[in-house]
Design goal:
The protein is of the alpha/beta class and 368 residues long. The chain has one domain (4-82, 115-275, 333-366): TIM Barrel, CATH 3.20.20.70. It contains 15 helices and eleven strands. Its EC number is 1.3.1.9.
Length: 368
């Protein structure tokens, strides 16, 4: 399993792993892939700086990346408090009443926080500035192209820039803006997704951007066979996310059994694509929380970042309660194959071994 991206980044396998956990990201990098730390959870710049220092010291000198959430068009924004004035009272009332109906207890006195500020453009810019003080080799943006000046800033520091795309036209726009790597994220993926499945999307984007722009296949990838399929479609590597939720290292971040119970019992049909998490379409695990938002009396989700500010405290309460029937959990359709919790190194080894076995079978079929 070796492509040009392995040489470009100094990695053994073209397996890029998005995760909000520094423990998972570091373990993937140590195992030969490229761990990519999601920064959106960091409200405090000093905390991100400490975590990236930890990454610098715990990846055995191997490369890693960071992922930010930054719209290309700079929005008008103020503080979190300013933005909260745009949240209708009917939405606040619905959230409060839903939490009460679902039996979600309040957080202990003194705990909790305001909305995750990492969804704000200004905070995402600070994440890039902090990252450039460390040694990542890649900046990925979950919302497509970052602003051109941010791309140039990364290039001047010697970093590659990647951006997610859900359609060929988006990929072409990213390339025109200077993005180096396109992540073709299919409908099956967890978190933000478009409307095209990866089997169709990956070759469409590969053909659109041409042979000089590397493409990572994403969406529903959790086995060596699926990596082989993605590379056969023209990708030079894969972008994975959901499968790392089912690792022992992720427990360092999750901190409760609700998540594990929820995904271990789920099937591939137990997810839903909805705007209730951030205001943009994202795939979540089906729970009583998502069902409540699909009821007739539920208000329409607010645009980003207002929706996140609206539900951030609710998510904190839900996660703290550990109830797998209510949990708010971004996850892809690959959840149906996540039936045990394993160390990151074992997951990587199995991906590589199954890829090699699949490649041999395909070689036999082709008469090679």
């Amino acid at each position: 399993m070796h492509t040009a991206l392995c040489d470009a980044f100094g990695i053994d396998y073209p397996i890029f792993a998005f995760t909000p956990s520094e423990h998972v990201a570091a373990a993937v990098s140590r195992a030969g892939g490229l761990g990519v730390l999601g920064c959106v959870r960091f409200n405090d710049p000093d905390e991100l700086d400490r975590v990236l220092t930890w990454m610098d010291e715990n990846t055995d000198g191997k490369p890693y990346g960071v992922d930010v959430v930054m719209p290309m068009k700079i929005p008008t924004e103020g503080t979190s408090a300013d933005l909260s004035t745009y949240i209708p009272e009917e939405h606040r009332k619905f959230v409060d009443e839903t939490l009460l109906k679902l039996g979600v207890p309040p957080l202990p006195e003194g705990e909790g926080r305001e909305g995750v500020l990492g969804w704000l453009h200004s905070v995402a810019r600070s994440h890039v500035d902090i990252a450039l003080q460390h040694r990542p080799v890649l900046i990925a943006n979950a919302l497509g192209s970052p602003p051109v000046d941010v791309i140039e800033q990364c290039h001047e520091a010697g970093l590659k820039v990647a951006a997610l795309a859900g359609a060929p036209k988006h990929a072409l726009s990213h390339v025109a803006n200077g993005v180096d790597i396109i992540i073709a994220q299919g409908y099956e993926a967890g978190g933000h997704t478009g409307e095209i499945a990866s089997m169709v999307l990956t070759p469409d984007i590969v053909d659109a951007v041409g042979p000089d722009v590397p493409v990572l296949g994403a969406g529903g990838i959790g086995s060596g066979r699926q990596i082989a399929a993605s590379l056969a479609l023209g990708a030079q590597g894969v972008w994975t996310g959901s499968i790392w939720l089912g690792t022992e290292e992720y427990r360092n971040l999750a901190g409760n059994k609700g998540w594990e119970t929820a995904f271990l019992r789920a099937t591939s049909s137990d997810t839903v694509r909805t705007r209730i998490y951030t205001g943009k379409p994202a795939r979540l695990l089906k729970t009583k929380w998502t069902e409540a938002w699909s009821s007739e009396d539920a208000p329409a989700p607010l645009p980003m970042p207002l929706q996140n500010l609206l539900v951030a405290d609710a998510h904190n309460r839900i996660n703290a309660s550990g109830d797998p029937d209510v949990i708010s959990m971004p996850i892809g359709q690959i959840v149906g194959r996540m039936n045990e919790v394993r160390p990151v190194a074992s997951v990587v080894a199995d991906l590589v071994a199954e890829f090699e076995e699949t490649s041999k079978k395909l070689g036999g079929i082709a008469g090679l």
